[in-house]
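Records of this kind hold a single protein each, on a pair of labelled lines. With that in mind, the following record should read easily:
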Amino acid sequence: MRKSTLALALIGVLFSMNKSHAQGAELGILIGPSFYSGDLSPEEAGLYFQEMDIAGGVFARFNLNRTLALRLGANMAKVSGDDRRRGLSNRDLNFQSNILEAALIGEVNLFHLWDYEGKGVIPYLFGGAAVFRFNPEASFDGDYVELQPLGTEGQGLPGYEEPYRLTQLAIPLGIGVKILLNKNLALGLELGGRKLFTDHLDDVSNAEVNYFDVLEGNGELAARLSNPLLLDPSPDDATYRRGGDFKDWYYIGGLSLSFRLQGEGRGIGSGRGIGCPTF
């Protein structure tokens, strides 16, 4: 319910912009793939097509001048990882999570190619700030179980960390290209990664865990999902680290379509002020 409320509120903001800001403003949609990178991907760091899921979103873009634009948007995405997909038989962990993201992003148009009668191509870089909500689940006995309330790494127990928050901050970074079809309509293609400040997108971190602590403190299900292959541990092999050193990432890419709001002006990507060379 909280996810739906946040998405509806942001969409309401996008579609109720004051008409005084219409000049140089666009509304758009985006759809494409989402990717996960972390402890349950083929390698901890990198972009891997084995981990591809689907994402979509809406956005409003405000073209400040020919070089700079601000974008306010909301995205929904899915990410997942599974040791069995990467052939790792000594851990047998898996997860999936839906993500709801609200972001404020700045775009820097690098240059304008073939700028003629509102048509052209504009490569750009982008970066900004985002708030996202996630909720990792694991497949268990034919169903999916929410992992954060279980405390699979001893969260909430004496000597362990507090339970991680399901709402976190992120820094979107990426690259894209806008294809101006005319003064009012543009296609876009982009890919951006999200630098996270948590290593629990997949519920797996580099924390040291004792199986018996989790079993006695958080219950049998938490212990089973903490280390599914450790069914009859001895004190010698009851302490382990489930993940590695790198923080998790997620990526959102895809194709966008945007149109200019009613207002006077030269068109998409053509605001006044400083600008890059036109070729």
